[in-house]
Specification:
Layout: H1 2-40, H2 47-69
Helix pairs in contact: 1-2
């Protein structure tokens, strides 16, 4: 098991970083949607679906990261 510890730690860290970047992208997408709706009365189409898919990615990568680093 010790032979796999370092590569799996690198993979888990990468999963955590990807999950964080995805969460940041979701925040920016939601912010853009709110600004477009309130300022220009223009809806950003598909933001609900983008958010749903993004949250699936964040949840899966977050579980992988927290499971390996015992952050739960």
């Amino acid at each position: 098991m010790h032979a796999f510890a370092k590569p799996l730690t690198i993979i888990a860290r990468g999963a955590g970083i990807c999950g964080g970047i995805t969460l940041l992208a979701l925040m920016l997408t939601t912010m853009a949607d709110v600004v477009l709706r309130s300022t220009f009365n223009f809806a950003f189409l598909g933001v609900t679906e983008i958010t749903e898919l993004g949250l699936v990615i964040v949840a899966i990568l977050g579980i992988a990261f927290c499971g390996w680093t015992e952050g739960h």
